[in-house]
């Protein structure tokens, strides 16, 4: 069985990510996905520490419902507010074969400005697939 770590936030339940996970699952081997959604960060967290956690929990819940409804074997959890730390924490807690990073498009993605796909690959040593998705509201 292959284990795939997935990190997403505002794209956690988007069609593009679901399609990428479905395509990965159809490669022939059994695959289990673990979705990690970093919790609040930046101004939103400073203004109201609970708001970001509630938003992240909603992203996890909604994404799990959609992805499981598509027949995918996926579990989910909240991660560190820093997406690189969230990936490292998950990779340290369990063993994964690969990593999928889902971001918004370049012109609006904070994670791409941080170079998350490259940093996550470096931090974990895992092969990374980058999925550009649309924001789920």
Describe, in plain words, how this protein is organized in 3D.
With 137 residues, the chain is an alpha/beta fold. It has a single domain, classed as Rossmann fold, CATH 3.40.50. It has six helices and five strands. It has a five-stranded parallel sheet, with helices on both faces. Strand 1, helix 1 and strand 2 form a beta-alpha-beta unit. Helix 4 packs parallel to helix 6. The longest helix has 21 residues. It is globular, with a radius of gyration of 14 Å.
Unreliable runs: 42-46
Ends apart, CA distance between termini: 33 Å
Order of helices and strands: EHEHHEHEHHE
CATH superfamily, called what?
HUPs
Integer tally of domains:
1
Provide the gyration radius in Å.
14 Å
Named CATH topology:
Rossmann fold
Give the fraction of residues assigned to helices.
40-55%
Name of the CATH first level: Alpha Beta
Number of strands: 5
Quick one: biggest sheet? 5 strands, parallel
- The CATH architecture can be given as 3-Layer(aba) Sandwich
Based on the structure, what is the oligomeric state of the protein chains? single chain
> Which secondary-structure class do the elements indicate?
alpha/beta
- Anisotropy-based shape: globular
Name the strands of the widest sheet in spatial order.
Answer: 3-2-1-4-5
